[in-house]
Amino acid sequence: MKRIVVLTGAGISAESGLKTFRDADGLWEGHDVMAVASPQGWAKNPGLVLEFYNQRRRQLKNAWPNAAHLALAKLEEKFHVNIVTQNVDNLHEKAGSSKVLHLHGELFKVRSTVDENYILDWEEDLCEGDFCKYNSQLRPHIVWFGEAVPMLEKAASLVEKAHILIIVGTSMQVYPAAGLVDFVSPETPIYFVDPKPAVSPTKNLKVIAKKASVGVPDLVEKLIGQVNL
Q1: Is residue 192 pLDDT above 80, yes or no?
Q2: Domains of the chain: which residue ranges?
Q3: Could you tell me the pTM of the whole model?
């Protein structure tokens, strides 16, 4: 069974009503991203950071997978599929994808501030005074600016073994995630789905200039059709 690795970013979830991480003005729903998504912001005002992610968590409860998420889950009928996402939502899981690696953490998880490996499932509000078993404040399980991306090495290993690479909803311009493309074998076909692609087609790079909810289902049907021939 061929291995497909799918790299996804904010664009795939935007069609489900979740705002992209950084708007054009450099703010995230009115907040300077560094105030709510950095260790410095957390140290300065943990209450603001907690409430910001509480709002994101509440919003996510009312968000549902779109046609792109559902189509990627369908790929598992014919392929070994790994999703590597920069998104912190759970829409891939809701759609039915079984192997999802979150590069930047997950909204519905929290972790200890003294042991980054002590992680808990958490769907409700997280407040000051919510402590872990070490009697230390819990924080969002999110990779903030300036922090290491612990899943990057595992993601690179998956990309290296891919027979097909699909990129959806991300410009692949932001590092370190953008560097994952460098691990793909030269002969591996790459499909880039984006309504306003900033790349040009090459021998192995096929550009699908459509929004995710249209381009991904089209591509999935094509790939499944090739297997059924």
Answers
A1: yes
A2: 1-18+64-104+149-229, 19-62+105-142
A3: 0.93
CATH topology of domain 19-62+105-142: SIR2/SIRT2 'Small Domain' (3.30.1600)
Q: What is the pLDDT of residue 20?
A: 62
Measured distance CA(139)–CA(132) in Å, rounded: 9
SS3 207: strand
What gap in Å lies between CA 97 and CA 174, rounded to an integer? 25
Q: Is residue 157 within 8 Å of residue 3, measured between CB atoms?
A: no
Q: Which CATH superfamily is domain 1-18+64-104+149-229 in?
A: TPP-binding domain (3.40.50.1220)
Q: Which residues are catalytic?
A: 104
For residues 84 and 180, the answer to whether their CB atoms sit within 8 Å is yes
DSSP track, 71-95: HHHHGGGTSEEEEEES--S-HHHHH
Residue 178 has pLDDT above 80, yes or no: no
Q: Which residue has the higher pLDDT, 198 or 214?
A: 214
